[in-house]
Amino acid sequence: KGELRLQSLTFDDAGMYQCIAENAHGIIYANAELKIVASPPTFELNPMKKKILAAKGGRVIIECKPKAAPKPKFSWSKGTELLVNGSRIRIWDDGSLEIINITKLDEGRYTCFAENNRGKANSTGVLEMTEATRITLAPLNVDVTVGENATMQCIASHDPTLDLTFIWSLNGFVIDFEKEHEHYERNVMV
């Protein structure tokens, strides 16, 4: 097949490789460089978010993406408690931490630890729970005669520390109130 396989690479394997194909009609060459990458985990370029918000009863994924070669092994802690996979907590292969059914008890400092044969590093963020956003008054079906006006309401409750934005769509397409101001009118009630 003209295939070259290298196993258990070392830094000595780095360099320019050349493949030569030859037959009765001639000879051709192809070159490729093999770089060997090895580095301890570092969060310098991609630190964990310092503040992570999660809705009460919802789900959160906290990313842990250090630069490292070879791929590091991951572990997580909340405060001083080491976390393990369970019914509500899962550590993904890529290092991310998933928590479902968020409660007030899940708030706190989360640290991701990454370790490979070159070294180790960690990064920490704080998880805060917010009240879940809920639709308290949903739009109702409306029958109107052609040419008349129709009004639809939508009211939601939300965490007071967060802003709330209402987005209306028609058949899956978001309504642009700026462009379609002659047909649609948005009234915001405080």
From TrEMBL:
GO terms for cellular component: membrane. Residues 41-128 form the Ig-like domain. CDD domains: Ig5_Contactin-1 (cd05852). It is found in: Membrane. InterPro entries: Ig-like_dom (IPR007110), Ig-like_dom_sf (IPR036179), Ig-like_fold (IPR013783), Ig_I-set (IPR013098), Ig_sub (IPR003599), Ig_sub2 (IPR003598), Striated_Muscle_Regulatory (IPR050964). Keywords: Disulfide bond, Glycoprotein, Immunoglobulin domain, Membrane, Repeat. It comes from the Eukaryota. It holds the Pfam family I-set. The keyword Repeat applies. The keyword Repeat applies. PANTHER family: CONTACTIN-1, TITIN. This is CNTN1 protein. It comes from Piaya cayana (Common squirrel cuckoo).
